[in-house]
Amino acid sequence: MADPRRCTSPHVGGYKRMIHPTAIIHPKARVNSTAQIGPYAVIDEGVEIGPRCVIGPHVYITGITSIGSDNKFFAGCVIGEAPQDLKYAGIPTGVSIGNNNVFREHVTVHRSNKTDEQTIIGSHNFLMQHSHVAHNCLVKDYAIIAGGALLAGHVTIDDRAFISGNCLVHQFVRVGTLALMQGGSAISKDLAPYTIASRTNRINSQERLELKKLYHTLFRDSASPREAAAAARESFAGAAAKTMLQFILESKRGVCSEKADIPSADEQDD
User: Fold this and answer.
1) Contact between residue 175 and residue 159 where contact means Cβ atoms under 8 Å apart
2) Same domain membership, residue 168 and residue 118
3) Rounded (5°) CA angle 149-153-154
4) CA 192 → CA 4, 12, 155, distances in Å?
5) Beta strand pairing status for 186-187 and 168-169?
6) DSSP assignment of 98-157
7) What confidence tens digit (pLDDT) does each residue in 28-78 have?
8) What percent of the chain is modeled with pLDDT above 90?
9) What burial letters (b/e) apply to 23-34, b meaning 16+ CB within 10 Å?
10) Which end is more exposed in the chain, N or C (fewer Cβ atoms within 10 Å of the end residue's Cβ)?
């Protein structure tokens, strides 16, 4: 009898199932019966692929990688490969991917460097060609990471953030909800919600009156965004403003500002 993981069958549960005969799937990999696997794809032992996923040609999925439903991986993606961390000793670690994500050509997502953590991609994200998500990153929901953008290890990208083409995000940096990085910009400090990064560690306000006022309070009228945020909690009651204030008060690396870079308390201790 032919191996069902290596053949084409007409329909399974109402969906056309197609696994190209050149695909290599480990016998212990768990591939949903509705998934499609393209030519020369390689699926390793610890991989789980959910319903209606489409795995394109030459895609390599490895590590302890769990993939939800309706994800699309275009040609040449590498998902779950070992982290680029000199301290990593080859232990089994993982990647968790939600639902309805798109990974365009040659996207790379590396697994975590610790067994008690994962690299996490949420749901409804769009990762464009040649973008990179390093170990232990958290990309939440509805984010866009454009072509050539690089996320270093332990980066957090909040909901609906937009990382434009060829942007660089330093390790441990957080990018807040609905924040935007203009093409080619680079940040080594947290980028607050609803703001725009232009060039290096610089931001401008969005066109919302309360946020604009808060922006001036935090980034133009004060030399220390953290101190200004603590003082502003009583004056700004809107949900978006509270999100901004909480983000800044939780920052460990300091926050991008129009003024000269002010080191955070942790950086001063270093």
Assistant:
1) no
2) yes
3) 115
4) 50, 47, 14
5) parallel
6) -SS-EE-TT-EEEPPSSTT-EEEE-SS-EE-TT-EE-TT-EE-SS-EE-TT-EE-TT-EE
7) 999 999 999 999 999 999 999 999 999 999 999 999 999 999 999 999 999
8) 67
9) bebeeebebbeb
10) N
